[in-house]
Amino acid sequence: MNLLVDADACPVVRIIEKVAKEYGIKVILFVDTSHRMESDYSEVVTVSKGMDAVDFAVIQRGKKGDLVVTQDYGVAAMALGKGLLALHQSGKQYTNENIDQMMFERHLAKKARRSSSHYHGKGPKKRTKEDDEHFEIALRRLLEENKKSQLHQ
């Protein structure tokens, strides 16, 4: 298993690297050329700046059983379709059971934004220490489940 991270503006990269080191798992961080990222642990893949360039690079590189960390529902949907695991930076796991609903809600929100010049969404709330803890717990749970399933194969 590898951890593939849609790392443009990802607030949990350091948590991912810390946990991955403990489990001995390779981390690959994907960024576009408008971001500069260095890591002592992870492989950093820089792709050309372009719409969805990072997204497609993540999916292209992923192999069945890898874990993708992304806040993008579209990337998560593609990951699930390819047999990858997918985790939001909030700690919510994307699954085949919840991705359709999440995509539909995203569609409705986008439609509302387009239809009203007066629509002003709140935007994301400020990230808290509890958010980071929740993500780390979810990441460890997924890695433990993967470790157990590997032992039973």
Automatic annotation (TrEMBL):
Compositionally skewed regions (Basic residues) per UniProt: 110-127
InterPro entries from the UniProt entry: UPF0178 (IPR003791)
Pfam families listed in its UniProt record: DUF188 (PF02639)
Region (Disordered): 110-134
PANTHER family in alphabetical order: UPF0178 PROTEIN YAII
Family per record: Belongs to the UPF0178 family.
NCBIfam families given in the database record: PRK00124.1 (NF001095)
The name this protein goes by in its record: UPF0178 protein F7O84_13435
